[in-house]
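**Folding the chain**
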Amino acid sequence: MTCLIKIKYLFILLSMANPNLHENKFKRALVLPFKGIIKVISPVSYVKHQYRYITHHKLNLNNPIRYTEKLQYLRLFVYPKNNLVSKCASRDGVREYLKELGLEEILIPIYGIYDKFDDIDFNNLPNQFVMKCTHACGYNEIVKDKSKIDLKLLRKKFNKWLKTNYGKKTVEMHYSSIKPKIIIEQYIGELDSLPTEYKIHVFNGKARSMYVVTGRGQDIRYNNYYIDWTPFDGSQFNGWKKTDYELKSPTNWEQMVKIAEKLAANFPFVRVDLYNINGKIYFSEMTFTPAKGTLILDDDKCDFEMGEWLKI
């Protein structure tokens, strides 16, 4: 036990990669064997120290004030108990949710949902498509040329992902009840670029802010705005950079906001990600604890400003 106490302040060096962090590789290697144990013994302590290391702020779970603190509260105590959160965090369940709300027209067409990698008949797939695990964030493969697929490596990757309990791995337990599957979507980008993504933050049913992701796969940039497209640069996080030019809102932006608010109506907070391709709106995903809530904002005041928007 004494050993665990000594290393609990070090294990958070294993947190997600961040350009503003300068990790000690020796300490990282030292703590690695204990990371899983600490998550099991005390996930609350794990999250507290992870949050402290990344944001440099002490986490107050008894009276959370900051936006990032309230995300931790939701992460630990609220969302793991909410079956609708788990449903909407899953790639297949959220499609059913959109259909229930009458929003089926904004779903990206799919080619199938599979329990196992070997169930997929690649011969019947088009040349471009996107493969995603239903139970996790970031377990994706974008295929732009089917003829270049290394099926052996791809099988190994997805088989590993399907066996991973993503909720336990990231201490975002609302993912743990999702059955791991593979969903294959239509590729909606251009051959040389991925579509612009609009990530709308909805607090207690009201869209307040968002950021726009451009240049994904090339020179990725993140522009932060209030929901009326007034710059919200202070809410930029984790050392990401924005474009050197201002972006323009889509002509049907108000419709996108209404869609985001409709999808988010049942939750204290959720980020709704949408695409807009030549005026056609597509749904991407719903994210309940962005970056696990461990965000380093460019202006610390924005953490408190957004915290005021979120009632938990």
